[in-house]
Amino acid sequence: MESIYNKSFSDLEEYFESIGEKKYKASQVYEWLYGKRVESFDEFTNVKKDVVAKIKEDFSINRLVIEQVEKDVEVHKYLFELPDGNHIEAVLMMHDYGKSLCISSQVGCNMGCKFCESGRLKKVRNLDASEMVLQVLQIEKEINDRISHIVIMGIGEPFDNYDNVIKFVEIVNHAKGLQIGSRHITISTCGLVPKIKEFSSLPYQVNLAISLHAATNEVRNKIMPINKVYPIETLIESIKEYINKTNRRVTFEYIMLEGINDSKEDAINLCNLLKGINCYVNIIPYNETNNIGFKRSKKDTILQFYDIIKRRNIQVTIRREFGSNISAACGQLRAKKESE
Ligand code: SAH
Fold first, then answer.
1. Which pLDDT score is estimated for 311?
2. pTM of model > 0.85
3. Where do the structural domains in the chain lie, given as residue ranges?
């Protein structure tokens, strides 16, 4: 049965019209689900009994089960068990500007990035919108507080599950839903060009982050198979188009992998590639995992890389590290669980 949390506001309006009820009932339902946060249809006290009975016939009002939590002062890592027994992860980070939640969009991932733990376990299935919404709802309940920012950077490639991810954004962004501002939502992609183009035409002001990780095809081909399908020229062209259309700044993520993409020359190539693009670069110290063999670049190498970019007047930051000591590198908890 479909989860009620899978319904966007307009889906619910359509639903009520289709069963001969007034559209405004969608408002009432959203108020119960996201305002009052009830967990049973029986608590819909302002909705007629026969309508509640009909809703019960058509939808479930499930929650996700938190199976495991690892906590540090500034980061909590959650392992969820889905109704079909699959596992996904979400990571909560406490910033000075609020609480940000990194959610999963798929069970596993098919992009096969060589350095990534999530990709070692192939995609089992997409998450539907409800399974993304419920990661947020369940963790807000757990911490008894509101999440201010969402990043779709957990397990999975969001643009390989485009429709569900966009519906999720619609639900969490909705004024009667979770009310998280679109500028507080970031989607991170390894570069599925057709979807970047589609995304350019959406009315949302959602942030776009690109996992670039290399400035030449030679290097990128070695670590990210997707680059053989959409090489750097094609990717950059689609991003320029996105910026032209939306007038928004793009974030480029760049993981520092020792001896692979962290030389002076790599930094200069990166600057040349990004010259004139309205962007900012987020340098990410690689989270080493046990199973893959890539090494994190040395601190000095990272600083040298940062300096080169900074001196060329491209905005750049080195990502603050969260939770590398509690297996917060993406996909690690799930990988551990699956190998048990
Ligand atoms: N598939 C999407 C979103 C999930 S990955 C994407 O590729 O953007 C989120 C980010 O974490 C990506 O930039 C990814 O390359 C990076 N990442 C993966 N494994 C990592 C690790 N061990 N340490 C640091 N970053 C990692």
1. 96
2. yes
3. 2-60, 65-339
